[in-house]
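subagent[fold] <- orchestrator: predict structure for attached chain, return tokens only, no commentary.
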Amino acid sequence: MHPDTRLVAEHMKQFGMAILGRAIFDATFNEMMKPFAHALAVVHAAHGAEVLMKARIAQEHPLLIFDALPRASTVQGELSVAELLTIGRTLRYEDIPEKLWAATGFRLPNVKEFLEFGRLRNQIMHFAVPDRELSDHVLRFAFRVIEPVVREFWATSLVAYAEQWDDVIHADGYLAERLERLGISL
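subagent[fold] -> orchestrator:
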């Protein structure tokens, strides 16, 4: 295996955190003048969570995030990131909780909500945006399902990554107010 594949997990972690931070930012503020911001926040939150959990699995070994790998007969020399990106197929969203447990021993505390949120993302992406309060779903997902994973594995909070998009989201109490209304404490 090419040594560059070892760099993938850290990049995925940082990218997943950034995506989740953006989703939290978009879910915290209203959609006025930003149509579909909350629907996009669902898409971003699910995608960010997927990337982030795959990052944790990849920390154990980068090839664990793949369902299908290039064959030795199709690759010249070592298996590289380029071949993985071109030929490999990563885990499906719904398979991530089991692979995370198998690779790390960590059981996702809210698997049902994780899977339901993935279905909501798919509905938005492939069919239509449902007529319901999507921002609440994003914040519940981020802080009830993904925040425990982030704290367990990296001893940090998603709040710091939401602040990268707007430093007043936490300092001015916008996020805390929304979370309090949803009965979520950090």
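orchestrator: received. Logging for downstream: The chain has one domain: 3-181. The chain has nine helices and two strands.
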